[in-house]
Amino acid sequence: MRHGKKINHLSRQTAHRKSMLANMACSLIEHKRINTTVAKAKALKQFVEPMITKSKEDTTHNRRIVMANLRQKDAVAELFRDVAAKVANRPGGYTRIIKLGNRLGDNADMAMIELVDYNELYNAGKPEKKTTRRSRRGGAKPAAAPAVEPKATKEEEE
């Protein structure tokens, strides 16, 4: 039984798994999309999304936490400078996994994992929408009726 075992170990020891995920996360931040297996993509998604959330608030504490996980100074700098600005208004779901089929050599399930806000093909058709939150308590105020201009008389038109 696998009660309480949420981490996919990816057939690796702990240190190897953490190093591999850190390297893959740095590659994802640098290149904005990478190809890997589906299992590694799912593990990488769980690894990198909390760090992107931390990068939205640029404090020394958050930088140190992310640096402890990523281990590359230039990747951390790019995450806090570029990626955080791009995902500032997104509440979560910073990555997207697209399945690509099977690899020719060993028939492994392959996937592409990418940062959502950097793909212009998917984001081109969607306009920026305003985020409004409405409560169910009935606190909504009725909208004011639009002002109607008086019609011009025949004398004013001539």
TrEMBL record:
SUPFAM superfamilies referenced in this protein's UniProt entry, alphabetically: Prokaryotic ribosomal protein L17
Keywords assigned: Ribonucleoprotein, Ribosomal protein
A Pfam family hit: Ribosomal_L17
Chain intervals with Low complexity compositional bias: 140-150
InterPro entries: Ribosomal_bL17, Ribosomal_bL17_CS, Ribosomal_bL17_sf
Signal peptide boundaries: none
Domain of life where this protein originates: Bacteria
Keyword Ribosomal protein: yes
Residue stretches spanning the membrane: none
Gene3D superfamilies cross-referenced by the UniProt entry: Ribosomal protein L17
Region called Disordered, residue ranges: 124-158
Cellular-component GO terms for this entry: ribosome
Family label: Belongs to the bacterial ribosomal protein bL17 family.
PANTHER family, sorted: LARGE RIBOSOMAL SUBUNIT PROTEIN BL17M (PTHR14413:SF16), RIBOSOMAL PROTEIN L17 (PTHR14413)
HAMAP family: Ribosomal_bL17 (MF_01368)
Assembly and interaction partners: Part of the 50S ribosomal subunit. Contacts protein L32.
Protein name: Large ribosomal subunit protein bL17
Gene: rplQ
